[in-house]
Write a structure and sequence with these properties.
Aspartate Aminotransferase, domain 2; Aspartate Aminotransferase, domain 1; four-stranded antiparallel sheet; 14 strands; 37% helix; 13% strand
Length: 502
């Protein structure tokens, strides 16, 4: 019997735009080049991409880099993987991207369409925040609460009066700011009045506003290493030079501050639950950081993104609450405690900086949306928030403990578990049986499980032995299935090799 030879796809002739002299990772360059070709129609729906072996040969890349780029395309919906057949261009383009019909194209771009250097660096570095599929251990999922949902729906009904709407206060609704000030004073020891609070569209807008006001392009910012990628990208867009200080079990290593010469303009830190490692900045180091900032005129932006979820022991006072010199700006969000779609975050600034923040805010955003603020404000002022948090904490504590116990039972040979006292993510470290977190992540994703490699968040560190797993919104069935799959991944895979540079 003569086997029918599989016909090669036209995509074999595709040549990606790869610049080996660029600091951008080769995987990121390949992914962006393929995504662009899919979006503008150069690669059509249904075409089979070259095998990783053939692509590596034709494109002069490692098979690992090609496989990782393909996996990103699959995860984001630009391609589909068919077992035993290959990877194919998806039939629909996600994210609202539209194809360009070259037969009807009338505009020819004869010159390079330039964008800023900062935008290019952000485009080609680090993981994006595009929507992820709902898979076991995805970070950032929300634990749904039926009682809270009913309350929010009822409160929302009373504010649906479009005839009465107009532009609101630059800083946000006073009732909500007052409620936040009272909540922060009681729960985090933050010392502030409603007049110092700016309501923002989540933490990211708060960071952007703070960085724009406090820093000039060319200034230096110190961040934790590893660091929350969108914060670094925000600094890069503002033209800031970034220096990373390593993190250990007691948070950012303040003994390394002596190497910062000259002193930086600003520190960006997550002291209560370091993202992504999960360590807590010790009190001696908090005091040392505050003293350094006071003596050298540095600003500190304290990101307390999940302060509501404390499971064991008493939280250490916020940096802002310990600050006697007015050098700390404090930011938080209700995206995890309520709903990310509400887009309610906040920024607490020193009183003397309020006028300049009020002057800059309208250039970025005239005012935060009033409807969501009134709903959340009533939810606070009518006393529903504390009970909601208690229910949510208990549910998240149970999810944390379930995941930790299953991992200990099934993966202890390979994973050392760092049980967090706070937050909605859990970090694991290699016991020595593997050293390539990216390869582990790729193998797990192929089986339908998401484990995030911390090496993608490194600033200067070369550590490739840690993974991040989310447990918020995690069901018992997902935890059971996900840990079984992860155990099988480690059993069948060899992840000792050095990661590809690209």
């Amino acid at each position: 019997m003569t086997l029918k030879r599989r016909r090669e796809s036209p995509s074999v002739g595709f040549r990606p735009s790869i610049d080996t002299s660029s600091p951008a990772p080769l995987v990121r360059q390949l992914y962006l080049s393929l995504r662009g070709a899919i979006a503008d129609g150069r690669l059509d729906a249904g075409q089979r991409l070259p095998s990783t072996r053939l692509a590596a040969k034709e494109w002069k890349l490692s098979r690992g880099s090609v496989a990782e780029a393909y996996e990103i395309l699959v995860a984001e919906g630009f391609a589909v993987a068919r077992h035993g057949s290959g990877t194919y261009i998806a039939s629909g383009v996600p994210g609202g991207l539209s194809r360009i019909d070259h037969r009807n194209e009338t505009i020819a771009y004869s010159t390079r369409r330039a964008v800023s250097d900062a935008a290019t660096r952000v485009l080609t570095s680090g993981p994006s925040l595009e929507p992820q599929k709902v898979l076991p251990f995805v970070t950032g999922r929300i634990a749904h609460d039926d009682r809270t949902a009913r309350l929010l729906n009822r409160i929302a009904g009373r504010h649906m009066n479009y005839a009465a709407e107009g532009y609101g206060d630059i800083q946000g609704e006073f009732e909500l700011r007052s409620a936040i000030a009272a909540h922060l004073a009681a729960s985090r020891g933050v010392r502030c009045a409603a007049e110092q609070i700016f309501i923002t569209a989540g933490t990211q807008q708060a960071l952007d506003l703070a960085f724009r006001v406090l820093m000039t392009p060319g200034d230096t910012a110190v961040v934790e290493d590893p660091c929350y990628p969108p914060a670094r990208q925000c600094l890069a867009l503002n033209g800031v030079k970034i220096i990373g200080l390593p993190v250990d079990a007691d948070g950012i290593m303040t003994e390394k501050l002596a190497a910062c010469s000259p002193p930086p303009t600003l520190f960006y830190v997550t002291p209560s639950n370091q993202y992504p490692v999960g360590s807590v900045l010790s009190l001696p180091r908090r005091l040392e950081l505050l003293a350094y900032a006071r003596e050298n005129g540095c600003w500190i932006v304290e990101d307390d993104y999940d302060s509501e979820f404390r499971y064991d022991g008493h939280p250490i006072a916020s940096l802002q609450g310990l600050d006697q010199a007015g050098r700390v700006l404090y930011t938080g969000t209700f995206s995890k405690a309520l709903l990310p779609s509400l887009r309610i975050g906040y920024l607490v600034v020193p009183m003397d900086l309020v006028p300049v923040f009020r002057a800059v805010r309208p250039a970025l955003d005239r005012c935060p949306p009033t409807f969501q603020q009134r709903v959340v404000g009533d939810f606070f002022n009518e006393g529903y928030f504390p009970a909601h948090l208690r229910r949510l904490r208990e549910r998240l504590r149970a999810s944390r403990d379930l995941l930790a116990n299953l991992l200990k039972d099934r993966t202890s040979e390979h994973l050392g578990i760092l049980l967090p006292d706070q937050g909605i993510n859990l970090t694991v470290r290699s016991t020595g049986t593997w050293s390539n977190d990216t390869a582990v992540s790729q193998a797990a994703l192929k089986k339908g499980v998401v484990v995030m490699p911390l090496s993608r968040m490194n600033v200067a560190s070369s550590d490739t032995s840690r993974l991040l797993l989310g447990f918020s919104g995690l069901s018992e069935q997902e935890a059971d299935m996900g840990t079984r799959i992860l155990a099988e991944v480690f059993k069948r895979g060899d992840f000792r090799r050095t990661p590809d540079v690209g």
